[in-house]
Amino acid sequence: MHSIFMQSSSMADSIMSRAATMEIPINSNGDSRTIPEDDGLEQDLQQVMVSGPNLNETSIVSGGYGGTAEGIIPTSSIKGSNMHHSGSNQSGMAEEATRGIAVEKFDIMKKWGLNTYKCTKQLISERFGRGSRTVDLELEAQIEVLRDTKRKYENVLRLARALTNHFYSMVQTQHALGDTFADLSQKSPELRDEFGYNAETQKLLCKNGETLLGAINFFVSSINTLVNKTMADTLWTIKLYENARLEYDAYRADLEELNLGPRDAVTMARIEGAQEEYQAQKDKYERLRSDVTIKLKFLEENKVKVMHKQLLLFHNAISAYFAGNQQQLEQTLKQFNIKLKPPGDDKPSWLEEQ
Prior knowledge:
By secondary structure, the protein is mostly helical. Helices cover 74% and strands 0% of the residues.
């Protein structure tokens, strides 16, 4: 068992040593050429490294001289001549089970380490123009359009929230101003009518403003769902697809390199294994590419449907408010099934909860 862990450590050291000794260009002065900072490369390397296997599902007993707690049998529970024989059988079974677990975990670590090395090598080769990568021009163009659309919609969402905050402050000011005019109307007989109709005007504006806030809030909520849930889900699938593409190209390059070598018995066995791994990565890549294509199609349809409704709502509500058409403003909310907070509700408003 100890030798297995020594082999695992040796394999890991070998992989890291190979990665560390990759070719780095040197200038005429003997200094490494300055490589411009590449945040994307660092993030991609982090993405490759963090996807390691989970080895916490079972336990490993080092040394091979004991088993898990379930494999320990108290001697007080065993009587007669069968005690020695039964104890030996249980000990042997526990040792075999532990050895099997250790070998399985070593294989997982070995596979993950080799996969990480190959993907890191492929990623660096692509970034420095030394390796080829699989490119789907049409799909990548659609992905770039989605990312650009998401950035623009995030800006719309930010501005709509800013408009809501400013308008909410104005409505609160109008409410306070209306209360002040109403109070002065009672205390200033000579200006009672003037203060009175100004108080009524501010109260009406305040009521219409609260109605408009309800419409804008619905608009903001819908855009937020579209950007931070629907688009984000599609972009997550795209990230999985891009990782699968990197793995596919890494195993493709490994197979091509083996095919250029000698054709002895050992190499042929390695080529056969590499061919199986390449085919598995190719199937995974093609499956995720199909998933991305389908999600992009449905996302575009959903985006058009949602934005058609929300832009119509936003236009009608804004136009009715600034035209002073209270009836049209209220009709707009009914048309889109928007419910306002009932008067006298002591719960904080949606804006106060932000």
